[in-house]
Amino acid sequence: MPNLFIMLPTLDEEMALADVYNRIPFKRLEKKGYNTRVTIVDGGSKDKTLRIADDLDCEIIQQWGEGKGAGIRQAFKKFLESDSDILVMLDSDGTYHPEEIPMLISAIPKDGIAIGDRLRGRLEPKAMTSVNWIGNQLLTWLAVALHGKPINDLCSGFWAFSRAAIEKMKLNSMRFEIEAEMYTSSAYQDIPMEHIPITYSKRKGEAKLGSIKDGTSIARKLIIRRIFPTPHEEQE
């Protein structure tokens, strides 16, 4: 049976974590032949997130650096050290629908990646502000203009990876620019991608992504990776 590694990044997600976990379709995944493990990658939660994760019997990774990118890279390393075959990552704030995990897994191309596409999927009311929608469209346009590989939703937080894809990726992002760097690495490492329309809901709790500051960091990463396609040195 293939082994599935579900990774949930957290930072003060006590309002949504239990609901996200309980909506993971474990029985459907088991019927499809998957052994599933759920790993929480925590960026220093001060609320009840870790207690909830422990009650749910999740594996917990306390990340060694601040920022989403640091946590995701640490989870990738953990994944490669395990016997898992597929990794699915989705934010644990209630915006993404765990029920759609099987759909994304089924869409992974050989040795590639499937990305949940919010902009061509179903955006529920108040799920995304107009500023974030415009910013995402502009960043996605910039990504394709600079790097040439088609993508529909650069800032999506719902991805499914083959093991071969993660083995090829070269990353050093620390914060919210991690998805942009995963895209650029896929472009330069010639990793196949599929874009799957998904449902996107209003988040539970306070937003962590700042529209202007984080958007600027994402654009900067896209430009840097156009000049230097791979990191000179991966940060630990």
Protein architecture, described:
It contains nine helices and seven strands. It has one domain: Spore Coat Polysaccharide Biosynthesis Protein SpsA, Chain A (Alpha-Beta Complex). It is of the alpha/beta class. Strands 3-2-1-4-6-5-7 form a seven-stranded mixed β-sheet, with helices on both faces. The mean pLDDT is 93.
* CATH third-tier fold name: Spore Coat Polysaccharide Biosynthesis Protein SpsA, Chain A
- Average pLDDT across residues? 93
Q: Main beta sheet: strand number and arrangement?
A: 7 strands, mixed
Going by CATH, the architecture would be: Alpha-Beta Complex
Strand residue content: 15-25%
What's the CATH class, please?
Alpha Beta
Number of strand segments: 7
Query: From the alpha-carbon coordinates, what is the Rg to the nearest angstrom?
Result: 16 Å
Tell me the structural class: alpha/beta
What is the helix fraction of residues, given as a range? Answer: 25-40%
Give the overall silhouette.
Answer: globular
End-to-end Cα distance:
32 Å
Name the CATH homologous superfamily.
Answer: Spore Coat Polysaccharide Biosynthesis Protein SpsA, Chain A
Instruction: Write down the secondary-structure element order.
Output: EHHEHEHEHEHEHHEH
Uncertain segments: none
Q: Please, how many helices? A: 9
Q: Which sequence of strands runs across the widest sheet?
A: 3-2-1-4-6-5-7
